[in-house]
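Sequence only, no structure available. Ideas?
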Amino acid sequence: MPSRDTARLLPTMAAMPGPRTTAGEGETSPLAQALERVGDRWTLLVVAALLDQPRRFNDLAEAIPGIAPNVLSQRLRRLEQDGVVIAQPYSERPPRSLYELTERGRELAGPLRQLADWGARQAGGAEPLRHGDCGTPLEAVWYCPTCERPVGDEDAELHFL
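Reply:
I predicted one. C-alpha cells follow.
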C-alpha cells in the first residue's frame, strides 16, 4: 500500500484510464492535475522551446521536429487557456502571434531540466549535469528558504494546498 503522500501524487482513476491509486474520494491528485495540463510529449516540447526566448509559430515548428502544424496550434491554444503561454499578435492580416511563456510557464524550467537529465541518463552514455567548479554530478534536492538548508527525505512532509 502506498504511503499517504505517495497516494496524493498518483493520478485518480477519473483522471487517467486503467487501475490507479486514488488521491481520495472526489479528489484529483496534484500530479494528475499537472499531467492534465502539460502531460503529453508535444506540450512539454513546446514549453521547452519557449524557455530560451519568445518564438513565432514557424520558429516553434522548426524547433520541434516532427510536430504537425495542427498539433502545435492545439497545444498553443491549450497552453494559453491554462495561463502557461501568452500570444502577442504582431500582424492582423494574416493573423500572426509571438508566443511567450508566462511566469507560470517559466516555473516549468526546473522540472523540464530534471526530466531531460533523467532522459539523457536513461538513454545510456549521456553525461549528467555537472558542477562547473569541481565536476561533480549535480543532484536535485528540496531546499527550505526559511531555514536556508537542504531538506532530506526523512525531514520532508508533502503538503499540497
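The mean pLDDT is 81.
Hope that gets you unstuck.
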